[in-house]
Design a protein that fits this description.
Layout lengths: L3 E6 L3 H12 L4 E7 L11 E2 L2 H7 L5 E4 L6 H10 L3 E4 L7 H14 L3 E3 L7 H13 L1 E9 L2 H4 L15 H14 L5 E10 L7 E7 L7 E7 L7 E8 L4 E5 L4 E4 L2 E5 L4 H15 L7 H12 E6 L5
Helix pairs in contact: 3-4, 7-9
Bound molecules: NADP nicotinamide-adenine-dinucleotide phosphate.
The site of NADP nicotinamide-adenine-dinucleotide phosphate (NAP) has 25 residues, from helix 1.
Amino acid sequence: MSRRKIAVIGIGKIAQDQHLPVIGASDNFELAAIVSTRGIGYGDVPVFRSPGELYNAMPEIGLVSICTPPGVRHAYVREALDAGKDVMMEKPPTTTISELDDLIAHAVRRDRVLFQTWHSQYNEAVYRTKALLAEEGVQSARIDWRESVRKWHPGQDWVWEPGGFGVCDPGINAFSIFTKVMPFPVFVEGAKLTFPKNRQTPVAAEIRFKSSQPHAPVLSAGFNWLEESDEIWTIAFTTGRGNSVSLEGGGRLLRVNGKTVLEHGDAEYAGLYDRFADLLDTRQSDVDATPFRLMGDVFLMGARENGPAFDW
Ligand code: NAP
């Protein structure tokens, strides 16, 4: 089968690190154009300064992958759907849940495929953890998500603006795994959000969850964006049978009772584009709002405290 023509919109860190090379290696997709407000090029594909210019000039491109920050995503996705495009979009989906609901409804109205990506879910160790917890249940869970904002969002001031999520931008990756593998629903019971005194979004968060389970499992999360040693992207569970299950490396390493049972490399974005190809084949959308709703509840329930100023 011939490869489908796709355009990538927003040529920042994640587009350059993942989307463009993964599309380049894909059997399903052909990079046919890019949209970059700064005019960033890639290979010899045409570059447009706005999505509208792309849609006018190359109407034969039926797919777009939107890699901008969430603040402009609602407008960009709506514009793409109105132009008749099927859409894949980065996480976090939008800045508000109402905007995401609107996009879901609009994709139905326009009869287009809408794929909300959660890249951290696309790991074999995550699927195995889900199966294990479905069998053994959960007594406790602790999420530790710590990384360096300077390394992962270098110079990106949008992360510190309202709608930029702060440390909850990577934290939502943890939630995308957590909500996928947990065998029962969880709710935010309370949260403490630490804001640099000169910024609008949190640099750290400590969160307590509750559930409706009679055995009252103990569930919590800690996010920190000032971890300069190395990434700590771990979710540690104690199962109902008393086994320790530790999902590490952002979902790429699974240990049970301290013993490594599965470890693999990075195939997240290849998995996302395979999934998009399947959705296009079957003309289905895939939008899971659960991680986003849980993060919205963190902001609703979060007590605020001011911390030291942050500068790059
Ligand atoms: P980034 O480096 O700031 O890139 C975003 C790009 O979007 C910009 O370079 C710009 O590209 C374009 N853009 C269009 N309108 C913009 C606006 N109003 N403000 C800022 N940029 C605008 O950000 P990123 O790290 O690639 O993150 C983009 C999305 O991917 C976020 O939702 C993020 O959560 C997600 N993500 C990031 C990572 C990571 O490691 N950084 C990992 C996974 C997912 P042009 O100049 O080409 O238009």
